[in-house]
């Protein structure tokens, strides 16, 4: 397993999706507001972090690979701060486009006593225009044609960066270059990801995307739903994350449920980002889909032990993956 993890360092992973800034207010609650029956949080620390698809970037980087993010931000101070954070993390900004037509997405979380109390979202989720999509595609194509890309991740948060047109063009480009494509979907584009290598919905997304009820504990129902999805998308593999039950992997030749490990769950925020990043680098390194799913499952569980959105610790993951 150590040799495999060393191979991650040679990889270039392109991430396309909805980036955002995760803003944190950390404090303590000692009284109730006289204005309304709500707690008053005395803020002691503020912090801004990369979020959304940018958290996938951080996870790819933490695993040792070189990530390149292709996304849009606003022409605003939040966008400038986002770029500053990218640079401070030694991450490329070559795939970022600044648009006047929309603000940079910011999600503000208020945390007290290690618990998230409220989240405030400032965003626009309208799909970017066809001209803006073409502009983004030109940036993506330029990067893919200039350098070796080992995998492309679509990190879709339904905020409007990814369109059916962009998906079709990028998947076609990837196939022409023999590049793996993996998808972390949301509702809007759920059935638009035709021909990708691996599609990774969670159970809620699977139910909503196919408009059917699926019992996570019933393997027959799971298999039926996943077969329907695989047929509709004509994708090679489907990996469904099942929270505490683990992961259902529908592979090229076989299928199985990979059980979750018992964890002290502190916060599930960002776990899906960690899972898709780990999946991409493992597949790009040549690992089979079932071991890939097992390692990604471990990674997702590990980050849930921390409060807030944090990237995976490669050494921690290697230590646990060595027992697989």
Give your account of this protein's structure.
Pfam families: PfkB. GO terms for molecular function: kinase activity. Keywords: Kinase, Transferase. This is D-glycero-beta-D-manno-heptose-7-phosphate kinase. With 324 residues, the protein is α/β, with parallel strands linked by helices. It has helices at residues 2-7, 53-62, 77-88, 130-146, 164-176, 203-210, 219-233, 271-284, 289-303, 314-321, and strands at 12-17, 19-32, 39-52, 66-74, 96-99, 106-112, 115-122, 151-155, 180-184, 198-199, 237-241, 247-250, 255-258. The strands form two sheets. A nine-stranded mixed sheet has the order 5-4-1-8-9-10-11-12-13, sandwiched between helices. A four-stranded mixed sheet has the order 3-2-6-7. It starts with a helix and ends with a helix. The model has no long low-confidence stretch (mean pLDDT 92).
Q: What proportion of the residues form beta strands (DSSP E)?
A: 25-35%
Low-confidence stretches: none
Q: Give a count of the beta strands, DSSP E runs of length 2 or more.
A: 13
Query: What overall form do the CA principal axes indicate?
Result: globular
List the helices and strands in order. HEEEHEHEEEHEHEEHHEEEHHH
Helix content: 25-40%
Cα gyration radius (Å):
19 Å
Q: Give the overall pLDDT as a whole number.
A: 92
Count the helices. How many?
Answer: 10
Largest sheet: 9 strands, mixed
What is the straight-line distance between the termini?
A: 9 Å
Question: How do the strands line up in the largest sheet?
Answer: 5-4-1-8-9-10-11-12-13
Quaternary organisation of the protein chains:
single chain
**Helix/strand structural class:** alpha/beta
């Amino acid at each position: 397993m150590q040799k495999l993890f060393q191979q991650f360092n040679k990889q270039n992973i392109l991430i396309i999706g909805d980036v955002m800034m995760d803003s944190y207010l950390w404090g303590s609650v000692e009284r109730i507001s006289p204005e309304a029956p709500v707690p008053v949080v005395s803020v002691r620390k503020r912090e801004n972090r990369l979020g959304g698809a940018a958290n996938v970037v951080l996870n790819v980087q933490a695993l040792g690979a070189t990530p390149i993010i292709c996304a849009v931000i606003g022409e605003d101070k939040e966008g400038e701060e986002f770029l500053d954070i990218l640079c401070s993390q030694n991450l490329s900004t070559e795939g970022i486009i600044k648009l006047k037509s929309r603000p940079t997405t910011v999600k503000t979380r208020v945390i007290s006593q290690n618990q998230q109390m409220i989240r405030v979202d400032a965003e626009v989720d309208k799909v970017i225009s066809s001209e803006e999509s073409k502009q983004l595609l030109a940036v993506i194509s330029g990067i893919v044609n200039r350098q070796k890309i080992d995998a492309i991740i679509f990190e879709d948060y339904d905020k409007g960066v990814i369109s059916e047109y962009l998906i079709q063009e990028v998947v076609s480009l990837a196939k022409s270059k023999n590049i793996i494509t993996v998808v972390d979907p949301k509702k809007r584009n759920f059935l638009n990801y035709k021909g990708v290598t691996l599609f990774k919905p969670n159970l809620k997304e699977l139910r909503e995307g196919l408009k059917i009820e699926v019992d996570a504990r019933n393997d027959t129902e799971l298999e039926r739903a996943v077969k329907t999805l695989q047929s509709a998308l004509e994708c090679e593999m489907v990996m469904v994350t099942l929270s505490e039950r683990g992961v259902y992997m529908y592979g090229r030749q076989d299928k199985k449920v990979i059980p979750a490990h018992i964890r002290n769950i502190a916060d599930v925020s960002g776990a899906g980002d960690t899972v898709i990043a780990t999946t991409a680098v493992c597949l790009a390194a040549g690992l089979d889909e079932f071991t890939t799913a097992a390692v990604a499952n471990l990674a997702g569980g590990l980050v849930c032990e921390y409060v807030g959105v944090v990237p995976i610790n490669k050494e921690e993951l290697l230590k646990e993956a060595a027992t697989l």
